[in-house]
Design a protein that fits this description.
The complex is a heterodimer of chains A (about 270) and B (about 280).
Chain A (H helix, E strand, L loop, with lengths): L10 E12 L2 E13 L4 E5 L6 H9 L6 E6 L2 E2 L7 E4 L11 H11 L4 H14 L15 H14 L4 E5 L7 H18 L2 E5 L3 H7 L2 E6 L4 E7 L8 H4 L2 H15 L4 H6 L1
Parallel strand pairs in A: 3-8, 3-9, 6-7, 7-8
Antiparallel strand pairs in A: 1-2, 1-4, 4-5, 9-10
Chain B lengths: L1 H18 L8 H30 L8 H13 L2 H33 L1 H16 L6 H8 L3 H25 L3 H9 L4 H38 L5 H10 L3 H29 L7
Helix pairs in contact in B: 3-11, 4-5, 4-7, 4-9, 4-10, 6-7, 7-9, 8-9, 9-10, 9-11, 10-11
The chains are: A alpha/beta (about 270), B mainly alpha (about 280).
Chain lengths: ~270, ~280
């Protein structure tokens, strides 16, 4: 079941547990999660709502300190966020008072990059996501897909080695979503940053990943790990192939036919 | 060649078409609403004037018509009293208002950022918010004398209380995702504060300032009714002694107009500064 990983893992979850207070009781969002992600790997995480997908990402991002266990990145424990781990949020999280350019420059400015170099680097990433004509536009004038492309450029600009993506395309229409998936894969296959990608869309999970992590809820835990042995670049042909359909069925089955907590306790 | 270029431009255009939220020429929607309300505003003004004329003519004792009031306005502009009074009132309002806002903004930020400071200050704030600034006037006069200080003090209080609450509200309602977005890009507390919290709460601060300015203006006139040697409120108080209704009308209209102009000016500033907001 455990995947073959060459070299030291880039990200390691070690017995990570986290609970939230919920109506007087406790809600186990993550229960002793162990997971290794190799350098340059593209891993997607799917699971029913409440399975702790977002908690997993927030812990990896350093935005949430787990109750127990730890996350190691390059062997070092994570305490707090770092520009080394770029995060893409589902709600885009662009600074609405800044133009596309200023948003993309934000992280560079914090890193102390000079104005000219900042502008040059920002322009490169704005160009990469195809927003050159909108560099000076405010986020409110952009469509959802354009906002998310801006957010991706902003994350890339600080040159992270890891990208953590929390249902980044979840709020977009189907056509835009497919376009952005292809763009993301295209960039990933050139630069091979490690990607941890949360989604609730089984198609998306299989299409993008080297490996699909299926999580189960109550308590949130890793249910299954499914290797996706499909070649890159992933194309429409692959999306329509019988192998893809078979993997999708397998992932779908393990997401939607999980033992309920009742069944588990009675067995 | 031409098709390649077309394809390159297509995604943005298609997305714009799909969501219907492509770049919209600014001001298009706004000018349409302006055009539709302007005739109504003018009509409403004319209607009010008509009612005024009717009221004056059916003979309420000493009730002046628009012409009589306009004549009085011309005289008081001519002898300089109207300008002098208006300036005296404005000076008090602006001094108190500027001082109030200058203190309210940092205090509001501190309350929003540090829970301990919030816990210490909020009970007093909630209490004094329930005391109308005018109710402080007797105390202020006893403690500070009858010159400018007590009037400016109550205006300061009025603008401080409304601005501090809205600044604080602005800070606590900053979207936590924006703060997280800044933190994962490497921002420390200081940058999160100056780069995210301050701009994100600007709309709240400006709304508080508008409310504060309205409250200040209402307070100054009332304060002048009680104790002053010049000012719009003082002039009305004097006119009341002589049953001089036209002068009272002139003062009332000027008070309303100046208040309106100040409010519109701040509204305009607000629109300019928070142009980035998505408005529905």
């Amino acid at each position: 079941m455990s995947p073959v990983v060459s070299g030291a893992p880039k990200i390691e979850f070690r017995d990570v547990s986290h609970s939230f207070a919920l109506g007087g009781g406790e809600f186990a969002a993550l229960d002793r999660v162990n997971l290794d992600i190799a350098d340059g790997e593209f891993v997607t995480v799917v699971g029913p709502s409440g399975c702790g997908k977002s908690t997993l990402m927030n812990v990896a991002a350093g935005l949430l300190e787990p109750d127990a266990g730890e996350v190691l990145v390059d062997g070092e424990p994570v305490h707090g966020p770092s520009p080394q781990r770029g995060v893409i949020f589902q709600q885009y999280a662009l600074f609405p008072w800044m133009s596309v350019r200023k948003n993309v420059e934000f992280g560079l400015k914090i890193a102390g990059v000079g104005a000219a170099e900042r502008r040059r680097r920002a322009e490169r990433f704005i160009d990469m996501v195809g927003l050159t004509d909108f560099a000076d536009a405010l986020p409110k004038t952009l469509s959802g897909g354009m906002k998310q492309r801006c957010a991706i450029a902003r994350a890339y600009a600080v040159d992270p080695t890891i990208l953590l993506m929390d249902e980044p395309f979840g709020a977009l229409d189907a056509l835009t979503r497919v376009q952005l998936q292809d763009r993301l894969l295209d960039t990933w296959s050139r630069e091979r940053r490690t990607v941890l990608f949360i989604t609730h869309d089984v198609d998306e999970a299989v299409y993008l990943a080297n490996r699909v992590i299926v999580m189960a809820a109550r308590p949130g835990r890793v249910h299954r790990v499914i290797d996706v042995d499909l070649p890159y670049p992933r194309t429409e042909e692959i999306r329509l192939s019988p192998e893809f359909a078979e993997l999708r069925r397998e992932v779908w089955h393990s997401v939607y036919h999980q033992p309920t907590p009742m069944e588990r306790t009675s067995s | 060649m031409a098709t390649v270029r077309k394809d390159a431009a297509a995604p943005a255009a298609r997305e714009a078409a799909v969501t219907g939220k492509g770049p919209v020429p600014p001001g298009k929607a706004r000018s349409r609403t302006k055009r539709s309300t302007l005739p109504l505003t003018i009509g409403s003004g004319l209607l009010g004037l008509l009612i005024w004329v009717v009221l004056a003519n059916i003979g309420i004792q000493g009730f002046p018509g628009p012409l009589e009031v306009a004549e009085r306005a011309v005289t008081s502009i001519g002898d300089g009293t109207l300008l002098g009074d208006a300036l005296a009132s404005l000076r008090r309002v602006l001094t108190g208002f500027v001082l109030g806002v200058a203190l309210a903004v940092p205090v509001g930020f501190l309350m929003g950022w540090y829970p301990v400071i919030r816990g210490l200050i909020e009970p007093w704030l909630q209490f004094f918010r329930m005391v109308p600034p005018l109710a402080i006037i007797p105390l202020a006069i006893v403690l500070m004398g009858i010159d400018e200080t007590p009037k400016i003090f109550v205006i300061f209080l009025a603008s401080f209380l409304s601005s501090v609450v809205s600044t604080f509200q602005g800070v606590v309602s900053v979207d936590s995702t924006l703060i997280n977005a800044a933190r994962v890009l490497g921002a420390k507390d200081r940058t999160v504060f100056t780069g995210v919290v301050v701009p994100a709460s600007t709309p709240f601060i400006l709304v508080g300032m508008r409310i504060g300015l309205g409250a200040s203006w209402a307070t100054v006139v009332a304060a002048e009714l009680i104790a002053a040697q010049e000012g719009l409120g003082y002039r009305m108080q004097q006119a009341q002694l002589y049953y001089d209704l036209p002068t009272i009308f002139v003062q009332l209209i000027v008070i309303g107009l100046i208040g309106l102009i100040m409010d519109r000016a701040l509204l305009l500033a607000e629109r300019r500064l928070t142009n980035w907001q998505e408005r529905r």
